[in-house]
Amino acid sequence: MEDLNAPKDHYKLAYVIFYWLGTGSLLPWNFFITVNDYWMHKYRDVTVPENNTTNGTTGYTDLQLQWNSYLSISSMIPNVLFLFINALLGHKFRSQPRLLAALILIIVLFIFSDVMTKVDTDTWQIGFMGVTLFTVVIINIAVAIFQGGLSGLAGKFPPSYMGAVVQGQALGGIFAAGSNVVMLAMGNGSVVAAFADFLVAIIFLVTALIAFIILTRTEFYRYYANESALTQNSDQVESGKNGENDKEVEQLIDEPTNGSGDPDLAIVNPGQSSLTKMSTWAIVKRIWIWILAVFVCFFGTLIVFPAITVLVKSSGSGNAWSDTYFIPVGCFLLFNVGDFVGRTLAGVIKINWATHFGSVCLLGLSLVKLAFVPLFLFCNAAPSNRSITYVAIDSDAAYLIFMIIFSISNGYIGSVVMMFGPKMLQSGEDQGRAASLLVSFLVTGLAAGAFMSQLIVNLL
């Protein structure tokens, strides 16, 4: 619930900026995976005419086949490492300088990636892959710092602001995929389209940087961002009045209010200031089902998307849909639209998930979502490279239906966890730390899925 004493968010400015920042937080990942045709061009067999590789008359090269798995792993390892570092230590540092520095670094490295689209790399494909993956690692270190800091910050605000962040992240995917489709529709080749897409990303990230600076100057932001510090100062003033009050405070800290026998898990009554800061382990014990639900959900996503889904071929041929738009639209744009719809539904459908029963239900939904792994594996993925498994589902319609349900469930579960998981805790600071922990385990699920995706690709 919003604090009635808080300053007003005039014109919903802070909400819009959180939405904008959420969009920018996943923009690097979305643009890198969306320009798949560009990477296929970079890692193609240069001895074969490119129209043959484009139309699928030849199989994939080893670099093409493994690229999306390599990209996922290079993105997720630094994400996991630095998001956990942020979850453990980030609350000790101010959000503003961390977010500003991370955004600037991302912008600089995206400029480098944009320049590389104009460099002929046909004679050093492996070297180019190494340089690109190194750039991806550094970008994702910065992304982890930015995303973890943003989630921790949004966790201190009313739930709708965390909702704005997660919906903005989904919008970032639509923005990236839509930009690529538009560039291809304009008749641009894969290289020109990638150059334009990266340029669009750079411009967007610069505007996000400016928007964040504006946000930090608002009274609404300062109230919520510094709320825990103000509470601590107030508690210190009150506890210093006399020795008797000090003893009462110590007794209150020593006695849990929920009868669990664990002072770390004491529930503070609404309207009562939290007198202690929960340990990280105590927060984990409070939200462990939420942590497991978000881990399983995103593990089930990255194990097949995009490593397997991007290899699915249309059953048709010789037309624009099957040769040009099937993957950009049917894989990337459709997934991101569905993900956005799922995240929006999480805010529209009024269900109080912040209960033990609600968390168990979410975990069940995440486990059911794993059924999409074999479904996509037996779709028409890399049909010319099959050696272990076989194609059992070669229908375009079936693949698109799977993608719709897969993406909507991903967005809904992820959004509900991030909106309601932190609210299992009481104080603003603990909620911020819980949000950072949830993001850390979300990306851990992504990383685990990325590693497993390489195994799944080898099962083709």
Please name the CATH topology. Answer: Growth Hormone, Chain: A
CATH structural architecture: Up-down Bundle
Low-confidence stretches: 227-275
The biggest sheet, with number of strands, parallel, antiparallel or mixed sense and barrel status, is: none
Class in CATH? Mainly Alpha
Order of helices and strands: HHHHHHHHHHHHHHHHHH
Helical segment count: 18
Gap between N and C termini: 50 Å
Explain the layout of strands and helices.
Elements: H1 13-25, H2 27-34, H3 36-42, H4 50-54, H5 62-89, H6 95-116, H7 125-154, H8 159-185, H9 190-216, H10 219-225, H11 227-239, H12 243-254, H13 280-302, H14 320-348, H15 356-369, H16 372-377, H17 396-420, H18 428-458
Tell me what the structure shows:
The protein has a single domain (about 10-230, about 275-460), classed as Growth Hormone, Chain: A (Up-down Bundle). The protein is about 70% helix and about 0% strand. With about 450 residues, the chain is mainly alpha-helical. The N and C termini lie far apart (about 50 Å).
Summarize this structure as a short list of keywords or feature phrases.
about 450 residues, mainly alpha, Growth Hormone, Chain: A
Compact description:
71% of the residues lie in helices and 0% in strands. By secondary structure, the protein is mostly helical. The longest helix is centred in the C-terminal third of the chain and has 31 residues, at 428-458.
